[in-house]
Design a protein that fits this description.
TIM Barrel, 10 helices, 258 residues, 8-stranded parallel barrel
């Protein structure tokens, strides 16, 4: 079993290499999903829990008072606390359209998001369109191979196709959003949303799994935690708890396989 930093040698993508090394250096496999609605909330959360995370995941189009200052401050905090920024855009259109969505409009995602993601429903053209923009700025792309919502159609053949496309475009595709390890390529990073301390759900079909199960049993690499942290009374303390539990599960997995 290879460590995170050892797996960096199995990818040519600079963003993937950087993420692997951050995870090992900071002893964290935690990504916090900042699904809040104002600049103040996003920046406060990022600064508070930045020391505990390897990634901050944003949904930039839900920020009600978005402006360039937010991006400048997010980049500053990412450098200050040594984490990467993942814009959870979930691109899902033809190649030409996603190119414009990625590099233009009011958000200019490619200019600041180290990582973004995409559905493979449109076929390889969506990856090629994003790749033409992202490779110039040394960005990374995750493919949505599986989702945590009840009744998701991203299963079986769909998941297999995502893995195949990742191998074809492995200079730009750095891994997957999935519920478990779906690829044996050590250069691919698996990130799993829907993580909480207890296995519960919400009224909109979200299903949760524990950090120990996701990292230790299902072989994923990164925990994505949202409401379990940003809705807590002490976000730093809870983020630290998730970080420690996630890292312990990774260490135990490494020891068990070795």
């Amino acid at each position: 079993m290879l460590s995170y930093s050892e797996r960096a040698d199995y990818t040519t993508n600079e963003t993937a290499k950087k993420l692997f090394h951050i995870m090992d250096e900071k002893h964290t496999n935690l990504c916090v999903s900042a699904d809040v609605h104002t600049k103040k909330e996003v920046l406060k959360l990022a600064d508070t829990i930045g020391t505990e995370i390897c990634l901050l995941k944003t949904h930039i189009d839900i920020i009600e008072d978005f402006d360039e200052h937010l991006i400048e401050e997010l980049k500053r905090l990412a450098e200050k606390h040594n984490f990467l920024i993942f814009e959870d855009r979930k691109f899902a259109d033809i190649g030409n359209t996603v190119q414009h969505q990625y590099q233009n409009g009011i958000y200019h995602i490619a200019d600041w998001a180290d990582i973004t993601n995409a559905h493979i429903l449109p076929g390889p053209g969506i990856i090629e369109g994003l790749r033409e923009v992202g490779m110039k700025q040394q960005r990374g792309l995750l493919l949505l191979a599986e989702m945590s919502s009840e009744g998701s159609l991203a299963t079986d053949t769909y998941t297999d196709r995502a893995v195949e496309l990742a191998d074809v475009y492995k200079d730009f595709v750095i891994g997957f959003i999935s519920q478990q390890k779906v690829s044996d390529n050590p250069g691919m990073i698996h990130m799993t949303p829907g993580v909480k301390m207890t296995t519960t759900g919400d009224t909109l079909g979200q299903q949760y799994n524990t950090p120990q199960y996701v990292i230790g049993e299902k072989g994923s690499d990164v925990l994505i935690v949202g409401r379990g942290i940003y809705e807590s009374e002490d976000t730093l303390a809870v983020a630290t708890q998730y970080k420690n539990i996630g890292w312990e599960a990774y260490v135990k997995r490494m020891a068990r396989i070795v």
